[in-house]
Design a protein that fits this description.
Layout: H1 12-23, H2 26-33, E1 38-39, E2 49-54, E3 61-69, E4 74-79, E5 84-97, H3 103-107, E6 110-113, E7 117-120, E8 126-142, E9 147-148
Antiparallel strand pairs: 1-2, 2-3, 3-8, 4-8, 4-9, 5-6, 5-7, 5-8
Length: 166
């Protein structure tokens, strides 16, 4: 059998090594710094910025976006109509499940550090917080929709004004 007619065998180690070399290359680092950051959509609490890595979160189809959040940032209980995969790029991201974000539920949140990932399945109520400056990469199917469990938590809704006595 000639070398050209033999089936090619590929092992994972060389592929992993190649992937690591590519990811650590100056080109890959340059592409990461070329992300166009801007304010996160108004559905997120004030203070976060977002960059689209690929796709278009406003249209049907897969997309990848990064969300950069300050320390202590919180996203109240919400849900999405599609599955969401979260990869922590920097910092510490806390992910909790349920309808309430209080002292008790905060204690049971999953702690994800840089390099770790988690999933939020479609229609499952969840919430999030950060410890330290945090960047997460979200992969999902568009169009992106974030529905708050308590509509009053939606930053797009005008806050009720306190009644003043005359």
């Amino acid at each position: 059998m000639s070398p050209l007619s033999r089936p090619m065998r590929v092992t994972m180690m060389p592929l992993v090594a190649i992937a690591l070399l590519v990811a650590s290359s100056p080109t890959a680092r340059a592409q990461a710094t070329k992300l166009k950051w801007g304010p996160a959509p108004a559905v997120f609490p004030h203070g976060a910025t977002m960059a689209v890595v690929s796709g278009d979160p406003t249209k049907a189809g897969p997309f990848v976006a990064q969300l950069r959040m300050p320390s202590g940032y919180r996203i109240a209980p919400h849900w999405h109509p599609t599955d969401e995969h979260i990869l922590v790029k920097e910092g510490t991201f806390l992910l909790g499940m349920g309808d309430k974000m209080d002292a008790n539920t905060m204690k049971s949140m999953t702690v994800l550090k840089a390099g770790q990932s988690g999933d939020a399945k479609a229609n499952v109520h969840h919430f999030a917080a950060t410890q330290g400056h945090t960047v997460v990469e979200v992969s999902a199917q568009g169009p992106f929709v974030l529905n708050y469990v308590n509509p009053a938590d939606n930053p797009q809704k005008p806050k009720a004004k306190a009644k003043t006595k005359a």
